[in-house]
Write a structure and sequence with these properties.
The protein is α/β, with parallel strands linked by helices and about 400 residues long. It contains 14 helices and 14 strands. The strands form 2 sheets. The chain has an 8-stranded mixed sheet, with helices on both faces. The chain has a 6-stranded parallel sheet with strand order 11-10-9-12-13-14, with helices on both faces. Helix 1 packs across helix 14. The radius of gyration is 21 Å and the shape is globular. About 50% of the residues are buried.
């Protein structure tokens, strides 16, 4: 099957974490689909390349210095900063459309698969309308949240989703949000998660972190939405209850300085380690050594890091919010705590710390669940079925 995949985020190199799940998805198709990726250009990138044997076209929308909408953060925030951002976004959409049209015609596409309803889904809807090639749109979370905060996007979303024969969401939460917002036809919406990197699926030996009795890990962008400050509060409470706990934080972002200051204020410098951003290949060993992996973010679209941690044998804890509840099922594959409740998070961590057998049992259940639902081959199989539905 010949597929043109539209995305505004695609790995810039084999080990790039940005949009890495798309790379794993395409590789999961193996011989079942031939995929041409259309993504934005940025300084230092080739306009046409083969990345991991995948053909990628990167469209230009400005000169190198001005191509700043993709790969540098949340696109709609850049666009909202002023008239210059809006003009640049208009140029971006125009270049995106013409690049997508060329790709569909050149490769005689049978499916257009757009990731994120804006900008990809909107562009895909225009292309599908003009070429009659069936459209599939996949939402990922930030694009759905945008519909809540920017009313002007709803008419665009209704148009885009009306042209899609199949709409997929990474979690039941995202599906519910789309239907609640009234922008998509319920009969076309199905839940298909994104795949994990195959490196997490490999069997590995659990190892104990020798630095502390109880090792906690979190991995996320250091932004307000991720609520890493709650994790630091919970660590203070946990240590106050006599648990010799140590926290490692993987990731970077605009909240790093504030989080480091909070750590100093609470006299926790010796018990919190900021590791910065790490490559996908470095994460399995970190997951395998921790006694608990925590994702404290609110309204997470999916929370794929939880599946990664489970595949490496780590017991997980997450906020009872958003799409993470599809992965961390309370008392089955992990533990949940109420949004921004540091005391409840500390209680969940204490449960793992004082009953390692219970933690191991949930982790084992979670690993089996993640293997069944998040391997690239399993996810690719579901998308191939979605493509067939769209073609019919």
């Amino acid at each position: 099957m010949r597929v043109v995949l539209l995305t505004h985020v695609f790995p810039r190199a084999a080990q790039d974490s940005l949009g890495a799940f798309l790379l794993h998805l395409i590789k999961g198709f193996e011989h079942h689909a031939q995929v041409q990726v259309v993504a934005p250009h940025a300084a230092g990138l080739l306009e046409d390349e083969m990345l991991e044997k995948i053909s990628v076209t990167r469209f230009r929308y400005a000169n190198d210095a001005q191509e700043t909408l993709a790969y540098t953060g949340v696109m709609h925030e850049h666009v909202a900063r002023g008239m210059g951002g809006k003009i640049l976004f208009a140029r971006f959409l125009s270049a995106y459309f013409f690049a997508a049209m060329r790709a569909v015609r050149t490769h005689n596409a049978q499916i257009v698969h757009a990731h994120w309803w804006l900008p990809g889904g909107f562009v895909g809807a225009l292309v599908s309308t003009m070429t009659r090639v069936p459209l599939v749109i996949t939402t990922h979370g930030t694009d759905v949240e945008q519909l809540r905060t920017a009313q002007w996007t709803k008419p665009l979303a209704r148009f885009a989703f009306s042209q899609a024969r199949v709409i997929t969401c990474g979690s039941n939460y995202l599906r519910e949000q789309l239907l609640e917002l009234g922008v998509a036809d319920e009969s076309r919406v199905r839940v298909i998660p994104m795949p994990v990197n195959p490196v997490f699926v490999e069997e590995r030996q659990r190892t104990k972190d020798e630095r502390r009795t109880f090792s906690i890990l979190t991995a996320a962008r250091l932004t307000k939405q991720k609520n890493i400050d709650v994790m630091i509060d919970a660590l203070e409470i946990l240590r106050g209850r006599g648990i010799d706990a140590y926290l490692k934080i993987v990731g970077d972002g605009d909240q790093r300085a504030a989080l480091q200051e909070k750590t100093r204020e609470k006299n926790l410098e010796g018990f919190v380690e900021f590791l910065g951003a790490r490559s996908q290949n470095e994460l399995p060993a970190l997951y395998a050594r921790c006694d608990a992996f925590v994702l404290p973010s609110v309204r997470e679209g999916m929370g794929l890091v939880l599946a990664e941690a489970l595949l490496c044998g780590a017991p997980v804890i997450a906020t009872d919010s958003g799409g993470v509840t599809d992965i961390a099922r309370a008392g089955e594959t992990g533990l949940l705590f109420p949004e921004r409740d540091a005391n409840a998070l500390a209680a969940a961590l204490e449960k793992y710390a004082r009953d390692s057998q219970y933690a191991a049992r949930l982790a084992e259940n979670g690993r089996a669940f993640a293997l069944e639902h998040f391997s690239p081959e399993r996810v690719a199989e579901q998308f191939l079925k979605a493509y067939e539905t769209a073609r019919r």
